[in-house]
Amino acid sequence: MMITAPPGSLIVTWTGPATSAYRATGDPAQVPYPDGDPDQPRGVAAFTRRGDSIATGWLDTYQRCTKHG
Question: Domain coordinates of the chain in residue numbers?
Answer without folding.
Answer: 2-68
